[in-house]
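REQUEST FORM: STRUCTURE PREDICTION
Request ID: SP-0412
Submitted by: Lab K.M.
Chain count: 1
Length (residues): 160
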Amino acid sequence: MFFRALFAFLALPCVVAGLIPVLIARGDTNRHGGSAIGFGVLALGVVLLLWCVRDFYVSGKGTLAPWDPPKRLVVVGLYRVVRNPMYVAVLTVVLGWTLVFGSLWLAFYMVTLAMAFHLRVLFYEEPRLRQQFAAEWIAYSTAVPRWLPRLGPGNNGSRT
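STATUS: Completed
RESULT:
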């Protein structure tokens, strides 16, 4: 299973948040002086992404790939504070690249990616999870917000 997880990681987030942004930035002739702060944002995104991939592998007994999804609902780690931390992590990586390269095309790519992630979550992932995990999904989705992390222990997670 380790090699399936590694392949899924290399095929999906490494392409979406690594290869494509670099190719976009290389082709952007109108870049405006990037910022070194972007490297910190990029590093944060990579750490968050690796954490999520690990949780899918260890707790969910599966990979991040749609063709080999977790067998269990993942509700540990970052998934306790936000339902889609892997997508948030990918967007953080792309934001890091956007800042590093100072590319408006990368900013446009990031916004487009965010919209695509949101639509995928609404129309594919959440209905599938609701069907696959039933009551467990309902309790989880009620308690944990979709995109913005809970800010304190008293938050009931009703924000989506």
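NOTES: The CA atoms of residues 42 and 93 lie 5 Å apart.
Reviewed by: T.R.
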